Amino acid sequence: MSAKVPVRAERRENPAARKVLGTVAGALAASLLAVCLPGRSWAQENQGSIKISFVSFLSGPASGPFGVPARNGAEVIVKALNQGALAAPYKTKGIAGRKIQWKFFDEAGGPQQQVAQYRQLVEREHSDVIIGYISSGDCKALAPVAEELKTLTVYFDCGSPTIFEDVDVNPHYVFRTGPHAMMDEAALARYTVGVDPNVKTLAGIDQNYDWGQESWKLFLAAMEQLKPGIQVTASQFPKLLSGQYGADISTLLTGRPDAIYTSFWGGDLEAFILQGNARNLFNGRRLLLSAGEPAMYRLATQIPDGTVICARGPHGVFAPDSKLNRQFRKVYHSAYGSWPTYPSYKIAQAILGVKTAYENAAKAKAGAAPNTEEVIRALANSKWVGPSGPVELALANGHQAIQANAIGQFKYDRAKGRPEIVDIKRYAARCVNPPPGVKSIDWVHSGFKGAQCD
Amino acid sequence: MAAAALRRDFTPVILTAALVLLLAGSAVVPAYLRFLFELALANGLAVMGLMLLMRAGLVSFGQGLYYCLGGYTAGIAGSFLGISDVFALLALGAAVAAVVGLLCGLLIARYREIFFAMLTLAFTMVLYGLLINNERLGSTDGFNVPAPHFLGWAPEGERLGLTLFVVTCVLVYVVALGLHRYLGSAMGYLGEAIRENELRVEYLGASVRRLLLVKYVLAAVLAGLGGVLTGLAVGHVDPDLANWTTSGEFLFMALLGGIENVAAPLLGALVLELVRSYALEYAPYLWQMTLGATMLVIILFLPGGLWSLARMRKGADLTPEL
Question: Number of structural domains, chain B?
Answer without folding.
Answer: 1
